[in-house]
Write a structure and sequence with these properties.
The complex is a heterodimer. By secondary structure, chain A is mainly α. Chain A has a single domain, classed as MetI-like (MetI-like fold), CATH 1.10.3720. Helices cover about 70% and strands about 0% of the residues of chain A. The longest helix of chain A is centred in the N-terminal third of the chain and has 39 residues. In chain B, strands 6-7-8-3-9-10 form a 6-stranded mixed sheet, sandwiched between helices. Chain B has a 4-stranded antiparallel sheet with strand order 2-1-4-5, covered by helices on one side. The two termini of chain B are about 20 Å apart. Chain B is an alpha/beta fold. Chain B has 13 helices and 10 strands. The interface between A and B is medium-sized, with 21 and 27 residues.
């Protein structure tokens, strides 16, 4: 058989049988999509079918009640507050530091061995398991810096999560900045703009949507983390400080939604299983809301830019 | 007749005395008397250990158009980008020699490259308007340079000089990226002249444009010559012949570095070249 199975002299345009390999590949791709969808759907259906009755029965009481050892009274108020505070910490610590690091690395730092070494290591840091960050948080923010953070406090947990997502923020921001065409920078330099002006007026506005996408990813990651917070001071179970005010201050004890879910999921009472599912729904909604806000911000930026 | 034969077209053009540049071309006797806008003295540019151009010396006369021509790899763009220190932005690039501008060496240690680029503007091969409105594109340079006067007036004047005003005056708020390729390139020229530079460097400004837009750019250059000194890199020999007053012919040497073969008035280069290599190149026999 020659390379071309039909001689060129045969000018017929008719189809010569089905392209089985192509069809099979098409089928495999579709199958992969269906499997992912099926898993996602099963998870959500399971959680919703167990959790929705609790939410329906308890109503807003579930959202405003503090944790309790009695399933009928337990709620996720501290968890919601803790999770939102974690988001605030990530936003005010990890975003500025991460984005500015990325700008420095891409626009200012010389391209030499040292910067390449640092770049590779930031990528490695993004792959470090989150438990390790939890240990770091425990050693540094909870124990070593006890006088500043107040030990097992919201500050210690928030900063631990901020450090955890910092590499993600840096990498995604750096990629967004690198994607800005060189011609745009040259155009700016060519009419006598300084590096600061080119960066501020041309590069950052152009990279802003990509940077915001990175921050959305980082935020979602931070909101779902459990393990590092258990190590870095989040409280399991009912609060034992005896404080009447169940939402404590920054230096006080705290918990977050994922930690509450982890805590409830391992309790023996059957009622807590339904509560766990309900808390998962709340966490999903909180995370989706945080993402929606970030995406709205990004779209606004894209329209303006 | 094949219009793609460069030598033939060039010859016809010159005999007919056609083209906007020819009408105002400097006469032979004033050529030497013209004050140079920039003087390159023994310029070599390296990228790492690779020498891209070597020992380049020439003057670009003020209020004239100097064309840099030569085959690919002869260092035309590198040389052009050395004149406003754009090569500084390329990691690993190194400069040797002197470029004099009003008697000052542009590469003296106390010279600020940002100031250099404000006085020596640049138009790039690929039109690169900012993703901003037409107005903001032109106003960008004056704004960052702390322009105090009437910005609207300056924008209009710059767009008029770039022969773009009539096409865009009703849509100044629209994005510069929505314009056609030729209009975008004229917008880039308007943007460059809005900061009132003395010299404009053009790196193959018409290479991505259709013939009509190319002609518009060339006519524009001829008009701008009254107020600015223009140095243009072009691959297109007809363009050099039509639009420039002086031509510098570069070639790539054995060491792969670009060097000057011949530099003269454009008419001389195209009708009476001193060097066989120049004659071969302008008549399309190589390159």
């Amino acid at each position: 058989m020659t390379a071309i199975s039909r001689p060129l002299s045969d000018t017929s345009l008719r189809r010569t049988g089905a392209d089985w390999k192509g069809l099979a590949f098409h089928g495999v791709l579709l199958g992969a999509l269906l499997v992912s969808l099926l898993i996602l759907f099963t998870l959500i259906a399971d959680v919703v079918s167990r959790g929705l009755p609790v939410l329906a029965e308890r109503g807003t009481d579930f959202l405003t009640a503090p944790t309790s050892s009695r399933p009928a009274r337990a709620g996720v108020a501290q968890g919601i507050f803790g999770t939102l505070m974690m988001a605030v910490f990530v936003a005010i610590v990890a975003f500025p530091v991460g984005i500015m690091t990325a700008i420095y690395m891409e626009e200012y730092a010389a391209d030499n061995r040292l910067t390449r070494f640092i770049n590779v290591n930031i990528r490695n840091l993004a792959g470090v398991p989150s438990v390790v960050y939890g240990l770091l948080g425990l050693a540094i923010f909870v124990i070593a810096l006890k006088d500043v953070t107040g030990g097992r406090s919201m500050i210690a947990g928030g900063v631990t999560l901020a450090v955890l997502v910092l590499p993600i923020v840096i990498i995604t921001s750096a990629e967004a900045i690198r994607a800005v065409p060189r011609g745009l920078r040259e155009a700016g330099f060519g009419i006598g703009a300084s590096r600061w002006e080119v960066t501020r007026l041309l590069v950052i506005p152009q990279a802003a949507p990509g940077i915001l996408t990175g921050t959305v990813l980082a935020l979602s990651r931070a909101l779902g983390e459990t393990a590092p917070l258990i190590l870095a001071g989040a409280v399991l179970g009912g609060f034992s400080t005896g404080s009447k005010e169940f939402v404590e201050q920054l230096f006080g004890r705290y918990t977050t939604l994922p930690v509450t879910i982890f805590d409830w999921a391992r309790r023996p009472q059957a009622d807590f299983r339904e509560l766990t599912a309900a808390a998962i729904i709340v966490l999903l909604v909180v995370t989706l809301l945080a993402n929606a806000i970030a995406i709205l911000l990004r779209n606004r930026y894209e329209r303006v830019g | 007749m094949t219009t793609s034969d460069p030598s033939r077209t060039v010859a016809v053009r010159i005999e007919a005395g056609a083209g906007p540049a020819k009408a105002a071309a400097p006469s032979a006797d004033d050529a030497a008397a013209r004050e140079p806008a920039v003087e390159l003295r023994d310029v070599s540019v390296y990228y790492g250990t690779f020498r891209a151009v070597r020992n380049i010396t020439f003057d670009a006369p003020a209020n004239a158009i100097t064309a840099l021509i030569g085959p690919s790899g002869s260092g035309k763009s590198t040389l052009l980008r050395a004149i406003n220190r754009m090569n500084d932005l390329i990691p690993g690039s190194r400069f040797e020699g002197e470029i004099l501008y009003h008697g000052q060496n542009l590469y003296a240690p106390d010279v600020d490259p940002v100031e250099v680029r404000r006085r020596i503007g640049m138009v790039f091969q690929k039109a690169n308007p900012f993703p901003k409105s037409i107005y903001d594109n032109v106003a960008f340079g004056p704004r960052i340079n702390g322009f105090k006067g009437n910005l609207d007036e300056l924008v209009e004047q710059s767009l008029r000089r770039a022969v773009l005003w009539d096409e865009v005056k009703d849509k100044l708020k629209q994005s510069g990226l929505a314009l056609s390729g030729g209009q975008q390139q004229r917008l880039c020229i308007a943007r460059a002249i809005a900061v009132e530079p003395e010299i404009i460097l053009m790196d193959e400004p018409a290479s991505a444009l259709d013939p009509r837009s190319t002609l518009q750019i060339e006519e524009l250059m001829a008009e701008l010559r009254a107020s600015y000194t223009i140095i243009i890199v072009t691959h297109n020999m007809q363009q050099a012949a039509r639009a420039s007053d002086y031509t510098v012919f570069l070639n790539m040497g054995e060491d792969r570095a670009g060097y000057i073969v011949e530099r003269d008035r454009t008419l001389e280069i195209f009708t009476n070249p001193k060097n066989q290599l120049t004659e071969d190149y302008v008549s399309g026999r190589f390159g």
